[in-house]
Amino acid sequence: GDAVGAKVQNRPARDGEQGNLLAYASSATSAMTVIIGLIYMYWHFPSFNLKFDDCYFEDPDEYTYWVDCNSTWANDWGMVGIPVWVPFLIGLTGAMMVNPMVLQVVGFPRNFVQHGFFLIVQAMFANIGYCGKLGVTTGFVSIAIGVIDIVAAGFGIKSDRMKELQRLKDGIGYHSQDEESESE
Length: 184
What we know:
about 180 residues; mainly alpha
């Protein structure tokens, strides 16, 4: 009887450890995505070259329109330039999910299903298309950990942060594990 009770009492702590380990593994793929983003931005850094004196209100030749005089600037800083920043921004968002400040406000991710889907999206849009084999390898690892996250959610595994968000949602408030052990 006591051995079974000890196992039941010990399980939530072990689930927290598993959840935290999984959250850190998930964030490691996001940290790699940040590195991919930095490498990609280094090789495709936007140009600050803005033409003004060379731009007129008439076509410079029969192959160039006057409205395209600063097309390099538009391609680097306009909507066309967004893909250069995607791996860095998505990776930074994912890396902040372990212990976020800004994401704490929105409470994302609340569980490993959300986190798993985020990692799969990260793989598809911020890993696989960037930095060759590094991006593809990181993308496959992101997908694998994303699937593991989704399966872990089915077993009710949560990280300490996800448990904290659940307590805040339920109106219980935040209590550290030290406070909980002192009250018992």
